[in-house]
Amino acid sequence: KQGGNETWANNYYDRSTEFKIRRKGCTLTAMAMAMTTLGDTINPGELNEWMKERTYEEGGFSGLSVNWKAITIHSDSTIVYKQNIDNKIFFGDTSKATNPKSIDNYLEKCNLVVVKVSNKGNNHWVLITGKKSDGEYIIQDPGGESSSLSSYNNKFWDFIVLNKNKR
């Protein structure tokens, strides 16, 4: 979880002196959960510190935005990602929401998928780890609020697919 009693939850996110990981760290936390699942054990606090030491091009931050390439760089390319992000899409526009079935083939291949959902009118990133036989998407929510995508009306706007690099 990005909040709670974890020692890093009160660390400042990136170089911010305003936002702490507990408040703005869902992307960072989802990244760390996916990386750990795929074998690059790291917690959000450690990932935050690692990214702060780098330029954006080297896998660091750009303001409050993360560079998803950090996943591949930190794992020495043992983890790769496919980015499906269109930053021009307003996440609240339900007509532009991604059809969840578009990620089914990735989940069937045991990939992890990080998606951007709307949480009380704000961007929020969650990790999708699978799909149940009843069609429900199973998530790990950095905010600890939910265990299924249906809590977010099965709608998301952008996604990142992560898997082990098959060298």
Description:
The protein is built from five helices and seven strands; from the N terminus they run H-H-H-E-E-H-E-H-E-E-E-E. The radius of gyration is 15 Å and the shape is globular. It has a five-stranded antiparallel β-sheet with strand order 3-7-4-5-6. Strands 1-2 form a two-stranded antiparallel sheet. With 167 residues, the protein is an alpha+beta fold. A hairpin with a 2-residue loop joins strand 4 (112-119) and strand 5. The protein has helices at residues 21-24, 26-37, 44-52, 69-74, 104-108; strands at 61-62, 65-66, 79-84, 112-119, 122-131, 137-140, 158-164.
Short overview:
The protein has 167 residues and is α+β, with helices and mostly antiparallel strands. The protein has helices spanning 21-24, 26-37, 44-52, 69-74, 104-108; strands at residues 61-62, 65-66, 79-84, 112-119, 122-131, 137-140, 158-164. The termini are far apart.
Percentage of residues in DSSP E strands = 15-25%
Structural class, judged by helices and strands? alpha+beta
Catalogue the unreliable spans: none
Order of helices and strands: HHHEEHEHEEEE
What is the general shape?
Answer: globular
Q: Can you count the beta strands?
A: 7
Total helical elements: 5
Round the mean pLDDT to the nearest integer and report it.
87
User: Which strand order do you get reading across the main beta sheet?
Assistant: 3-7-4-5-6
